[in-house]
């Protein structure tokens, strides 16, 4: 991980994607596979539990929680709230 541990987590999904594209955030091993799945299907992730995401990605729930902490969030719920906000703003901008 290249990101400073003291910096706050990304506030939007776009910010997270920007950090990944800029290599400010790098995922080791299976975390990259889970991150790709979440970024490709945020609409599904927004309503799943960490255990459901883990099953979909064929990893343990602990791996999903490690990913969330790696990004900078304390809990999966905080991460999921950021994704839900992204979906809300996306829908609102299309009205």
TrEMBL record:
GO MF terms, alphabetically ordered: carbohydrate derivative binding; DNA binding; DNA-binding transcription factor activity
Region forming the signal peptide: none
User: Locate the HTH rpiR-type domain: which residues?
Assistant: 14-90
Q: What is this protein called?
A: Transcriptional regulator
User: Which regions form coiled coils?
Assistant: none
Instruction: Give one Pfam family, short name only.
Output: HTH_6
Q: Which organism is it from?
A: Rhizobium esperanzae
Q: What lineage is this protein's organism placed in?
A: Bacteria, Pseudomonadati, Pseudomonadota, Alphaproteobacteria, Hyphomicrobiales
Q: Which Gene3D superfamilies match?
A: Winged helix-like DNA-binding domain superfamily/Winged helix DNA-binding domain (1.10.10.10)
